[in-house]
Amino acid sequence: IKFNIVKPGAPGNMATQSELINIGTIKFSGSCEIGTGNKIVNGYKSILTIGKDSVIMDRCCVACHESIVIGDNTTIAHNCQIMDTNYHFIADLNKRQISKRTGKVFIGSGCWICNSTSIMMGAKVPDYAIVGSNSLVNRDFSQYTNGCIIAGSPAKLIKENYVRVFNTKIENQIWKYWRDNNSDYFPIKDLDIEVLTKYK
């Protein structure tokens, strides 16, 4: 586990230390990298699960008061917040009731959560999803199972069957292809979703 490291591609060379407050359980499924300037708060009896080969970039806030799951090979870009709580009780005067202030958050494997996005209580982000910058995700998108783009505030489905290419070996092949060919598209051929999205 690499904690408080300067990541290439971060918005700047951060000097702010990351902060970790843990009175619950944090489960790491394997290696991961957490950048600088982050605040991670894991409350009493809460469970924060971070998948193998996942990355949390700089200036993110993760607040876990019940359950947050971040899947394998998922990248959380800078300035994001992931919170399974709104911290406050809110009274519905029409229904004369007060709802829970927490709700589990699930982010699948192979996801790319773009910068300045909020993933809030009750959110379910499916495997291989791309969440556009400045989005607010506060509901269940798990019915989209083969990669999708969701974006907006609140977020909605934009496109299906799209994934971020994380595989650096394939990225190098794409760059070479475009240097050698006059084409706007790189043919995927027989590459499957797991190969495209897995860090190499």
Protein model, in words:
- By secondary structure, the protein is mainly β.
- The protein has 2 helices and 21 strands.
- The protein is globular, with a radius of gyration of 18 Å.
- The mean pLDDT is 92.
Please describe the structure with a list of short key phrases separated by commas or semicolons:
200 residues; mainly beta; 32% strand; globular
Chain-wise SSE layout:
Blueprint: E1 2-3, E2 19-22, E3 25-28, E4 32-34, E5 39-42, E6 47-50, E7 54-56, E8 61-64, E9 67-70, E10 75-76, E11 81-83, E12 91-92, E13 97-98, E14 105-107, E15 112-113, E16 118-119, E17 124-125, E18 130-131, E19 136-137, E20 148-152, E21 155-160, H1 168-180, H2 193-197
First-last Cα distance = 17 Å
Q: Percentage of helical residues?
A: under 10%
Overall body shape:
globular
Determine the number of helices (DSSP H or I, runs of at least 4 residues). Answer: 2
Name the quaternary structure: single chain
Using only C-alpha atoms, the radius of gyration works out to 18 Å
Largest sheet: 8 strands, mixed
Strand portion, in percent?
25-35%
Please, what is the average pLDDT? 92
What's the total count of β strands? 21
In N-to-C order, the SSE pattern is EEEEEEEEEEEEEEEEEEEEEHH
Unreliable runs, pLDDT <50, ≥5 residues? Answer: none
Gist?
This protein has about 200 residues and is mainly β.
